[in-house]
Design brief:
The chain has five helices and 14 strands. By secondary structure, it is α/β, with parallel strands linked by helices. The protein folds into two domains: 156 residues, GTP1/OBG domain (Spo0b-associated Gtp-binding Protein, Chain: A), CATH 2.70.210; 180 residues, 3-Layer(aba) Sandwich (Rossmann fold), CATH 3.40.50.300. The chain has a six-stranded mixed beta sheet with strand order 10-11-9-12-13-14, sandwiched between helices. The protein starts with 5 loop residues before the first strand and ends with a helix. The C terminus is likely disordered.
Length: 342
């Protein structure tokens, strides 16, 4: 299944059924009066956040989602059957935007959360409701209510505790494959990761947390440069960031690691000032590929910026346990206020 994080669909609820205009016709009852039943209510279009899907790819092949209309009323005071509602499954983290007004209609951020996007039309009244003292034989009945139609854009924003940041080929995919159940493509060239990946880091009996591998960002990503610009929105849901900076100088667009770290932070600030203020852990990757003297110089350069970097090698597993322990403590600290309120 391909990773699709944006689709445009049209949702239409069911029309309400027409009311019935009929009269009681029975032997020995010459003046039975009106007995038309009401029309059935049209079906709703409901969006449901489900764990069974993690992308919007299943919605690409169908552009219109329409619920069933209500059935018309019948004689003998029989009401029409309600139209069946239509449930549309979307991944957790889906935002619903009205395309015409650009207004956010819903944010499905919890499992099994349900949102009625289009309400079905009301059923029309049967002629029994129009009977009065002066009009004992009404021949009119109410029409069914109109359907509700919305043209919407569904945007998926991944929900994760930790978001991986860094330039292409910084070692994000190697790290997430080493510490979680995710198996992204890993290769020795930039832009190996073309779509975001989620991985669950198990802490045994303590629990687990989710880590997101975001495609590598480049300078100008907030203005639409490179592969990362359309995935910047996925970092908005992360509690904090794990910023990876490779200490290996070869293959990097900018040789100075500190300058690369500053460039990514600038892209975050340009995209959203709030993201730039979010907590970060800085980890220097690929420490097994450089000599100790160059590594010491890089560490000193970051310390001069007031940053104490962690040192890891995903290939040799060096420093990974300490890094994941630090991430787990931060996840626990961020979730503590929610537990107290509960």
């Amino acid at each position: 299944m391909r990773f699709v994080d944006e689709v445009k669909i049209t949702c239409i609820s069911g029309e309400g059924g027409k009311g019935c205009a009929s009269f009681r016709r029975e032997k020995f009852i010459p003046y039975g009066g009106p007995d038309g039943g009401d029309g059935g209510r049209g079906g709703d279009v409901i969006l449901v956040a489900s764990e069974r899907c993690n992308t919007l790819d299943h919605l690409r092949g169908r552009r219109v989602y329409k619920a069933k209309p209500g059935e018309p009323g019948q004689g003998q005071n029989k009401n029409g059957r309600k139209g069946a509602f239509l449930e549309v499954m979307v991944p957790v983290g889906t935002i619903v935007m009205d395309i015409e007004s650009e207004v956010q209609l819903a944010d499905l951020s919890k499992v099994d959360q349900r949102v009625v996007l289009c309400k079905g039309g009301t059923g029309g009244k049967g002629n029994i409701h129009f009977k009065t003292a002066n009009m004992r034989t009404p021949t009119n009945a109410g029409p069914g209510g109109p359907a509700d139609e919305k043209y919407v854009r569904l945007e998926l924003k991944l929900i994760a505790d930790v978001g991986l940041l860094g330039f292409p080929n910084a070692g994000k995919s190697t790290l997430i494959s080493a510490v979680s159940n995710a198996r992204p493509r890993v290769a020795d060239y930039p832009f190996t990761t073309l779509v975001p990946n989620l991985g669950v880091v198990s802490r045994g009996w303590e629990g687990s947390f989710v880590i997101a591998d975001i495609p590598g960002l480049v300078q100008g990503a907030s203005q639409g440069v490179g592969l990362g610009h359309r995935f910047l929105r996925h970092v908005e849901r992360c509690s904090f960031f794990l910023h990876l900076v490779s200490v290996a100088p070869w293959g990097e667009p900018v040789e100075d690691p500190v300058e690369r770290w500053q460039m990514i932070n600038k892209e975050l600030a340009d995209f959203s000032p709030e993201l730039a203020e979010r907590p970060q852990i800085l980890a220097l990757t690929k420490i097994d590929l450089v000599d100790p003297e160059l590594l010491a110089e890089t560490i000193a350069a970051f310390k001069a910026q007031g940053i104490e970097p962690m040192l890891i090698s995903s290939v040799t597993n060096k420093g990974l346990k300490e890094l994941m322990d630090d991430c787990w403590l931060r996840v626990q600290a961020l979730h503590e206020p929610e537990d107290e309120d509960a």
